[in-house]
Design a protein that fits this description.
single chain, globular
Length: 400
């Protein structure tokens, strides 16, 4: 059985999609079966994986977008199929990374493989369950209750306000639809919207095994973590009729894996590169906030399946992320503009960028063809840091 990991923060712009995109691909590269679920109506993860990188590609006249919509199941359609008793399984499997791996690793297609050109991607399985905000594509019933994420939100709002209604079992049906995917995947990552009021976010979190909170080293991320207790309490109150009990297999509280501060600035000093001092200060405050949240999390919810003291959680955390101090999993550096732009154009995670892909997209970074000569460039330093940091997170998740 696989692990379902939801990445959530009701603070926008903290790197939820970036974290899932890079770590999910790294785990697939380690031979794991990985499913990425985009539950954010902004559809950033969908665009990142499928290569929808321009505004015109999202128009209804776009051949690429039409083909994508009519060929693959999205999250609303998956829920709709489950409710109607038909389980859709045509998930998106054509990530651009396979194209690059085939193109740049075969000498038959090139006169020679130059230094830094090889894309080392030994994939296990990598699938995407996309998001959908408004285009219905292959939805035959345009007024279907579950045809778009906004419609799902509307129906869930009606459902939790009337738990005795005819469709009271639908919430657990949707929960089981997510949980049953564990039979086919080792890791399932769920990208949520930045909303504390989204009932869908709450349903997905309470259907997960674990959750990660990404953050930025700033006051607004600190504020969001300080509000987590109220956010979870609101969801717990709404979901109380469906929470797991002695005689009901229902929603459960997920286990916190930790926080991931991202977009941290790095500076060069006489002693070598180091993270910005203000970022370390913010990380300390953020960690204090998440610790306060955990104390409330365990004290107030006696039905929480772990029911363990905070000290036990600290020890457990150290067995997963062996070089980290609870509960900061890993600090991740700020992407340079060129690396981010290249990753978006190529539709692959930053950690899999190589020299040939940079040349193909007319961005001469000169990072990979001669690493020793370019090791001091800002791009080489950023790429090296990013690869190590997300790689460390992926290695830790292998210990779950």
């Amino acid at each position: 059985m696989g692990n379902i990991i939801t990445v959530f923060s009701h603070k926008g712009g903290v790197g939820k999609t970036t974290l899932i995109h890079n770590v999910g691909f790294l785990l697939a590269n380690k031979g794991k079966r990985v499913l990425l679920i985009d539950a954010d109506p902004q559809m950033n993860l969908t665009a990142a994986v499928a290569g929808l990188s321009t505004g015109t590609e999202y128009t209804e006249s776009s051949t690429l977008w039409k083909d994508f919509l009519t060929s693959y199941t999205n999250l609303p359609l998956y829920f709709k199929g489950v409710v109607e008793g038909v389980i859709p399984d045509k998930f998106y499997k054509k990530s651009y990374i396979y194209k690059y791996a085939q193109k740049h690793n075969k000498t038959a297609n090139r006169e020679k493989i130059e230094a830094g050109d090889e894309l080392k991607f030994n994939a296990g399985q990598l699938d995407l369950l996309p998001s959908s905000i408004g285009f219905n594509g292959n939805v035959t019933t345009q007024d279907s209750r579950l045809s778009t994420i906004p419609k799902i939100e509307f129906q869930l709002s009606n459902l939790v306000s009337n738990p005795e209604g005819f469709s009271a079992g639908m919430l657990l049906t949707l929960r089981n639809a997510i949980r049953n995917l564990k039979q086919s995947y080792d890791y399932i990552f769920i990208d949520t919207s930045p909303s504390a009021s989204s009932i869908l976010n709450g349903l997905l979190l309470f259907s997960s095994d674990y959750f990660i909170v990404p953050a930025k080293p700033d006051f607004f991320s600190l504020q969001a973590i300080d509000n987590l207790s109220d956010v979870f309490l609101n969801w717990a109150t709404l979901f109380r009729p469906w929470l797991s009990s002695a005689n009901q297999n229902g929603l459960e509280y997920p286990r916190l894996l930790g926080i991931v501060p991202q977009m941290t600035k790095r500076f060069s000093t006489e002693d070598g590169d180091t993270y910005a001092g203000h970022a370390n200060d913010w990380n300390m405050h953020i960690n204090e906030s998440i610790t306060r949240f955990l104390k409330t999390y365990y004290q107030n919810y006696s039905h929480y399946r772990l029911n363990t003291p905070l000290g036990a959680e600290i020890e457990w955390f150290k067995t997963i992320f062996t070089e980290s101090e609870p509960f900061v999993i890993q600090e991740c550096v700020h992407f340079t503009g060129k690396l981010r732009t290249l990753a978006e154009r190529a539709a692959i995670p930053v950690v899999f960028i190589n020299n040939a892909i940079a040349k193909e997209h007319n961005l001469q970074l000169s990072v990979f063809d001669n690493p020793e000569a370019n090791q001091d460039s800002q791009y080489a330093k950023a790429f090296s840091s990013i690869s190590q940091e997300y790689g460390y997170i992926a290695d830790g998740l292998l210990r779950l």
